[in-house]
Amino acid sequence: MGRAIAVLVVLALGGIGVAVTWPEADTPIVSDKIDPPEPVDPNAAAAPCASEDLDVGLAADRLTITPGVPVRFTVSVRNTSQVQCLVDGPRHSLAVTVYQGEVGEPTAERAWSSADCADPDEERLLLLGPGDVDVTNVRWSDSRSAPGCEPGQPKPAAGEYTAHVTLAGVDGVSSDVVRMTYTVPEPTGSPSPSSSGSAAASPSGSASADPSASDGASDES
């Protein structure tokens, strides 16, 4: 009888030990995250690119300009969005414009634009995927221009010039400003024809060097 009681006590204590040392259940994790965004469909129909979708850049092959040496601009259009979109980018729309003075200042004078003499009927529709870049080159041959490609424009004057790129039909699309200096070399000095003629006549002992001959002519008259 006593042995049976001892066995029951040991079993009871063992059961308590098991109950005490048994690991507790993990606390459930409650997520406070919002729902993930819908996946992008790369095959979805493309819409026109908005200004916030585009990064337009402009670079020049040199910043010091001299007459007779054209400037080559590089224009880049990058799609920074997560979906493909369309850009209407012919030369009369995606235009480089040069100003004498600072772009945006009231005193700046429009000097030249790649849109002035571009073909108004040109079509150039770009489909840009996410991260795609379109690169084109534009040349400015150090001349002035006017809308409609009016001829007879004067040469640019020496001074400070700036340039940027805009995209017609998409407000807010503009590149950083490129600053350039236009220099006109000073004309080299040369002797005038009158001075060179006098120098040539003096050693020959011409009639102009003989006062008596001149006086005689006056008397005859």
What would you call the shape? elongated
Distance between the termini: 177 Å
N-to-C SSE series?
HEEEEEEEEEEEHH
Structural class: alpha+beta
Radius of gyration: 42 Å
Strand order of the largest sheet: 3-11-10-6-7
**Low-pLDDT regions:** 4-13, 16-20, 195-221
Count of individual beta strands: 11
- Give the biggest beta sheet: 5 strands, mixed
Mean pLDDT: 78
Which percent range describes the beta-strand content? Answer: 25-35%
What is the share of helical residues?
A: 10-25%
How many separate helices?
A: 3
Record the SSE blueprint.
Layout: H1 2-21, E1 47-48, E2 54-60, E3 64-65, E4 71-79, E5 85-88, E6 94-100, E7 109-113, E8 125-128, E9 133-140, E10 159-167, E11 178-182, H2 193-201, H3 211-220
Parallel strand pairs: 1-5, 3-11
Antiparallel strand pairs: 2-4, 4-9, 5-8, 6-7, 6-10, 10-11
Provide an overview of this structure.
The chain is α+β, with helices and mostly antiparallel strands. Helices cover 18% and strands 28% of the residues. It has helices at residues 2-21, 193-201, 211-220; strands at residues 47-48, 54-60, 64-65, 71-79, 85-88, 94-100, 109-113, 125-128, 133-140, 159-167, 178-182. The strands form 3 sheets. Strands 3-11-10-6-7 form a 5-stranded mixed sheet, with no helix packed on it. Strands 1-5-8 form a 3-stranded mixed sheet, with no helix packed on it. It has a 3-stranded antiparallel sheet with strand order 2-4-9, with no helix packed on it. The chain starts with a helix and ends with a helix. Mean pLDDT is 78; it is low at 4-13, 16-20 and 195-221.
